[in-house]
Design brief:
By secondary structure, this protein is an alpha+beta fold. It has 6 helices and 4 strands, in the order H-H-H-H-E-H-E-E-H-E.
Length: about 160
């Protein structure tokens, strides 16, 4: 990946509907060259997905965002428990993000539920009934201040 790729990605990640001609004007390339680079970046897996970001309030006004910190038991086989938990969280549609972290807790899980009742059922099913979860705390978001998946792409000064 060169400097031009980084510039393209820095523009493209915020608006995938932006036309190649407009991106090309900013980075000094033709629209065709931008399209070729985007195609290569997709093929190389640098662009992992292109998805629509939905407005939560429009889709489900009663939806709640819960930030869950949880600890797992360390015995008898922690790696197997952690792997199974990772798979379960990866496969669940209510789980928006899941991080295996250092510090006081083992995981931080971001859950979006249709209601508090739906989150309660989720927590009972996936946390309370899991014998390897020793503790979990739920923090209900009062306000979405910033939500995003963009990456801070810097110009590495590498090849042009």
């Amino acid at each position: 990946m060169d400097r031009i790729d980084r510039k393209i990605l820095n523009i493209y990640q915020f608006d995938t509907r932006r036309i190649a001609e407009s991106i090309g004007e900013q980075v000094g390339l033709s629209a065709a060259a931008v399209q070729r680079r985007l195609k290569r970046l997709r093929a190389d897996g640098v662009i992992a997905a292109e998805t629509a970001v939905l407005d939560k309030a429009s889709v489900g006004p009663s939806m709640v965002t819960c930030i869950v910190t949880l600890s797992m038991a360390a015995v008898p086989a922690p790696a197997a428990h952690l792997d199974r938990f990772r798979r379960q969280m990866t496969d669940h549609p209510m789980v928006q993000q899941c991080y295996h972290v250092t510090g006081t807790y083992d995981f931080i899980v971001i859950v979006i539920a249709g209601s508090m009742e739906a989150y309660g059922a989720f927590a009972r099913n996936w946390f309370e009934s899991n014998e390897h979860v020793t503790r979990f705390d739920t923090h209900v978001a009062l306000e979405r201040v910033k939500v995003g998946l963009s990456l801070p792409i810097e110009d590495s000064g590498g090849p042009r």
